[in-house]
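Hi C.,

You asked whether I'd gotten around to modeling the 463-residue construct. I have! Everything is below, sequence then structure, no commentary in between.
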Amino acid sequence: MLTPAQKTNSAALAFLAAGSIWLLVGTLYGLVSAIQLVAPEFFNNIAWLMFGRSRPVHVNTVIYGFVINMLIGCGLYYMPALLKCRLWSETMAWWSFVLWNLAVISGPVSFAYGYSQGREYAEYIWSADLAITGAVVLLAINSVMTILNRKENFLYVAVWYFVATFLWTGFSYPLGNVIWHPSTGAMTGLLDSIILWFYAHNLPGLVLTPLATGAAYYVIPRVARTPLYSHTLSVIGFWTLVAFYTHIGGHHIIQAPIPSWMRNIAVVHSMVMAVPVFTVLANLWLTMRGAGGRVLADPAGRFVVAGSIWYLITSIQGSAQSMPELQRVTHLNNWTIGHSHIAVLGFVGFIALGCMWHVLPLIVRRRIYAPRLINMQFGLLTTGLTGFFVVLTAAGLIEGHGWYNGETVYRTLAEMPTYMGLRAAFGMSIIAAAVVGLYNFCMTVWRGEPFTPEYVVEPEEDL
């Protein structure tokens, strides 16, 4: 009799469940942070709820807990399915799950007591860094060994992206988190900023983007019931991503005294990122040609298509704000907060949810408990995120133009309460979406109608 850790796709399901739970936890911490921007004394100086501690929990839990957990779970299902074999080691996948989520759990615990590396997107303490690095190594080994034992000769592009994520992360995460300095997790001086932003921008570039792109490449052709438009375009998108994205973290510090060549490369490559972005989007959208109605009628397909649109908006804005003239107005204010939200929740989060709703029935062999709740989640997320983006962009432009024209920070604060109140209100819509999604997930696993997929090649059929 198989143990839960040996059952096919059990680790994938665990990652998906964790992602659904962490989405709710992460957004609740986001609300705690948002409330303090409206009423700073609301929590009466409760230390573990203060903004400086709750915001890192929100950011890291959404990134590492929600989107990465969910996309890993999706990949652990679709990679063996595309390769027509079992995952090389279900037990190793479970160890990856345990290590990864121990690191995520450490965030709310350690940050609440003030233990942090104090570096944006690299706040986790040293023991959590070791856990994440260990999980990445195990996932890389498991993925490579699955490929080596495959029954399918052709390597579909979704597999490329999934496996490459862990190979790239195995290098960039220890470097960016300065893992060889356990006492501080940081270098000194300007060098630390350079290393940090090399990693912090490769977090969305070489972790979130390939995981989300691979998931989109899996879902769109299946929902459209058509082959991928161009394998050549998918290869171009893959290699130009790693060629251009790795150098653009410096555009976060172009106003710092970094070398001129580093500043120029960061700006130029930020603009050239149009190549992998538009290549991927053209490939996905052309795959839907003639089948757009079918894709948009599918709840999972609708999420992925929306994610691809957010990807376009995010990339255009990201490239534009790397230019020094625009950055003088947009840097270090709410504009960049709005940008990061549409990148993580809009682009990556929508695709993660879409892929999850697509593969969940295939993993548990049960139909979605309530498809209308997926539509409700989609509407709530779209409303909340769109409002968030508009409000924060407007607030950022007010702040940026004020500072650019000589106003001090405290004089612009008087104009922010209305925007911060709207931010918290739209955040409630996102929290509601997380609650609806988690309920639908649990009910699908426990009470969904049993069925046998008709058009899925399952690993068991070739063993």
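If it helps when you're writing up: The two ends are 18 Å apart (CA to CA).

Thanks,
B.
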